[in-house]
Amino acid sequence: METLKRLNDPKIRMLLGLILCLLVALLLHLTRTGEQLSRAVLDTQLEQMQQHDVHQLQNDVLIVGIDEDATKVLKEPFALWHPHLGKFLDAMVKAKPSVLGLDIALPDRSYQFLVPQYDQGLMQGLQNLKAQTPLVVAQMLDESGAFRPVHAPYISAVGADALASVVVCQDGDGVARRFDPNLCTVNAQGSMLVEKMAAHLGKANPGTGLVDFSAGNKFEYIPFLKVLEWQAQGDTEQLARTFGGKPVLLGVVSRFGDRVRAPVPLAAWDPFKLRVPGVLMQAQILRSMLSKGLIREVNDFVVGALTLFAALFWLGRINWYKFAALAAFPFLMFAVSTWQLGQGMYLPIGGMLLSAAFAFIARLLYEGALQVQKRHWLRDTFGSYVSQEVLQEIMAGNIHSGLDGTRVRLCILFADIHNFSARSESRPAQEVVSLLNDYFSEMTVAIHQHKGTVDKFIGDGVMAFFGAPQALECPEQNALEAAQEMLLRLRLVNARLQEQGVAPVEIGIALHVGEVITGNIGSRVRHEYTVIGDAVSLTAKLEELTKTLGYPVVCSAAVAQAVERSGGLNDCGEQTVKAVALHVYGWNPPLLAEK
Predict the structure, then answer these.
(1) Under DSSP, is residue 493 helix (H, G, I), strand (E, B) or coil?
(2) pLDDT tens digits, residue range 475-490?
(3) Which site among 217, 448, 496, 518 is 20 to 30 Å from 406 CA-CA?
(4) What is the C-alpha separation between 97 and 248, in angstroms, rounded?
(5) How many DSSP H helices and E strands does the chain contain?
(6) Which spans in 201-319 are helix H?
(7) Residues 6 or more apart whose Cβ sits within 8 Å of residue 509
(8) Tens of pLDDT along 280-302?
(9) End-to-end alpha-carbon separation of the chain, Å?
């Protein structure tokens, strides 16, 4: 029971709600639930950066592409391109690039059994280039994930340390956004092709991180056939002007080559395709290493702290300010995260956005539940006091309930059955209860029809007031009309009593107007909407004059003046009520005389 009482404490419930939001935020962070959203946001940011924040390298990476034209002109299968690759390497000897990466598979066997000295051109080209230019050669993976073998003499020509993997690791959604060999390979550090190329260019140990797609424009490529043409023409000047001192990658760019999915387009000749040749991704990774470096991820502790901070959207009532704050939060985090990317740091915001959304929705549902609870409470509080029409208006918020306490001028009605105590002592209890229930039901309807509020039943007495919670233009007029309706309905009650052989009842009704306090008054376990003030007790005493003055309805002069003494009010002069001299009027409702 004590626990339930504590749970009813708004402060305790608010604290429990905050703890729940923080726990959910922590769970979102630990399970990486927002990672998919973070990736979608990141792709948008990378695209914007590629379009609007491009920075150029002094010696950009050049790609020599083996395209469809090359495969059409050079008739041999690629495994037999030894002479053509040898000529390309001879061209690079003349061009003198800063480093050359071969993103192609070197032969795994000798083909001299077909043509004598067939391997010689390629072998000589590797040896000549190795003597003057840093060379890195791709070592491909087979279907089982193991490295494909390379013909041993070729390894001897380039050196075993020149071999490197060209695996492009992908995120869980199949998109290559980062350079992190640990995601998909167990190769030792320094064994990746672009790492070794970067090391030859003075960028050793680049580490891991996101690829900077704002480094350089979309790639163009120099056709493989064009390089062979310059070599055949002996155009050393063109070769040196094009490739001299620059990092160069040879790879397949035709639609039949291996492709990877990038977050942004990389090929200038295919500017809308996200599936790009693998050599382009290798080149972009190398660009990142040679430019500002790979983009590092913000410390996981910081990300977790910000995710927990977003859970504070639980705090504060739901209003348009909070809606605006929630709407602005994603844009703010997007702007901050984009700025961080520009600074070389990646801040994943998916978990933060989900945490903020959960906290906001949880608070929205909590306040919705409170509203439902309040509606039930209002229905329970006012359901027996006012008419259904007034109750609906209160629940809709169109009428101020005044539950917190309000000082207001009201018209008080008090009605009592004459000589009921003597009757109740001489009649069976069931008959007395049945009579009172029938009587009170009719009186309640009469009061509600004229927008009055039933305060309480006191024995055989009824207390009501007019002007709260619904304000009335002339509460005194409503009270008089209700009194007349009560007397008319009393005739119905007496008719039913007569059918039962029970003596009819007479009532007296008193009306008085004055300033009182309305509010929800009582203890924590029981309270009621009522009014307090001298006007209340004075009205109860005023009702006793109905017996001595011979009128079914009596009212104070203040009531008579408010209705301008209409409807046949009779001046009864000053009367002593509760030791107070009060000017009183008597009334026989005209409708009673007509029926």
Answers:
(1) helix
(2) 999 999 999 999 999 9
(3) 448
(4) 7
(5) 22, 20
(6) 224-232, 236-243, 278-290, 300-310
(7) 413, 414, 415, 483, 486, 487, 543, 546, 552, 553, 554
(8) 999 999 999 999 899 999 999 99
(9) 58
What is the full DSSP assignment across 440-467?
A: HHHHHHHHHHTTEEEEEEETTEEEEEES
Residue in this structure with the two tokens 């306090």, named with its chain if needed: 517
* Burial 287-305, CB ≥16 within 10 A → b, else e: bbbbbebbbebeeeeebbe
**Which of 58, 82, 91 has its CA nearest to residue 243?**
91
54-78: per-residue pLDDT in tens?
888 888 999 999 999 999 999 888 8
Tokens of 220: 């163009």
What element of type H or E holds 514?
strand 507-522
In this prediction the pTM is 0.68
Question: Which domains, from first to last, does the chain contain?
Answer: 2-38+298-371 (no CATH), 57-291 (no CATH), 396-594 (3.30.70.1230)
CA distance linking residue 243 with residue 96, whole number of Å: 7
- The two beta strands, 135-139 and 99-103, are parallel
State the pLDDT confidence band at 10, using cuts at 50, 70 and 90.
confident
Whether residue 257 contacts residue 172, with contact meaning beta carbons closer than 8 Å, is answered with no
H/E element holding 58?
Answer: none
Q: Where are the alpha helices (DSSP H) in 427-574?
A: 429-449, 475-499, 534-542, 545-549, 557-562
How many angstroms separate the CA atoms of 125 and 131, rounded?
A: 10
Residue type, 237: E
